[in-house]
Amino acid sequence: MKIIYSYNKTGFEAEMYEANIRKASDDHFDFIPFNHGQFLDPRNYLEAVALDRLYQARHPSLVAMYQALQRLIAETGAAALIAFNCPPYHPDFLRTIAVYKVLYSGDDPGSTYIRNIPYQHAYDHLFYANPGYSRDMDMAEKMRYCGVKNADFVPIGVMEGAYDPGISEADLFQRPRDIDVIYVGAFYQQKLSLLAKLKRALGKRFQVYGFFRFSHNLFFIFRHRYPGWVSPVTFPERVRLHQRAKIGINIHWNEYNLGNERTYYLPANGVMQICDCAPLHSRLFPEPGEIVGYSDFDDLVKKIRYYLDHEEERQAIARAGFRRVMAEYRFVEITRKAARKIVDGMDRIGFSLSRSVPVWQP
What we know:
The structure is a single chain. The chain is an alpha/beta fold. The protein contains 15 helices and eleven strands. It has helices spanning 11-23, 48-56, 60-76, 91-94, 109-115, 139-145, 169-174, 189-202, 214-224, 235-242, 262-268, 281-284, 297-309, 311-328, 331-349; strands at residues 2-7, 30-35, 80-84, 100-105, 125-128, 151-153, 179-186, 206-211, 245-250, 272-275, 292-293. The model has no long low-confidence stretch (mean pLDDT 95).
């Protein structure tokens, strides 16, 4: 069965996605990458209402994207489409393509609410990457409450390129680690206060890198009193930095949001992970000693200092986390399992490729 995997990435990350998606193909499933980000910047449709405006106006770039997808479906004979993260496909367009449609919500619960839930009626199946949703319910219950008939947990996992699959476990853990604590990430305001406080508490022992513009750094320094300057790094540099780090900090949007990419690429690079969302840890790391949780800033600093002083315990946790990720959370294997979930979903709803659909008018 042929499955189109639609995503939006640029530069090295786009190449990494394409290579990993193609590598997921096997004797049963052929994955076809489609980078819809090359047509229109996703920042133009971060919310459903913004996409609706573009669609109603028949924005030329959106029309070109939809026509390219139609051609790809016709040329390949694809039976299914996975739309990953910040989906660009308007429901009124989706009703005109006959393939089995899967919405893969790889975002946090807040973003799920504003740019995934409005589209769910247009898809045959939904994948979600975060097990939690809110204090009222988890994501599985939220999907049922929204009336989604086919919904499955599919973790984001880690791609080759975000770690080095050519390094053995023994070699990875024998490498010298001269960075005590690390955080690499983009400019998200809700995380800045904690990062600044941690930098002031740990000084040079805590290294922060990320995708910060000049204005972002000025805001970070003057608003949050960050004592330094955050420099950008490439994806290969990020891998090398993490292979030198002892402890990695993970921060999510809120306490119900466990499951970002950092959750998986930290342990994949041999880093011991200290992460928020502690009540949800067992949903991804079921065995004790694979990840360390923290409740607040004081608890975070206390645990960082403890594990920096207890190297054997730190390394044991890092190694256990690495083994869990290698066993269950590599992207290629996750994607193949997702394909089997698609087949099961087709069977559950009696999906047929021969069903008639309206003709789309660009």
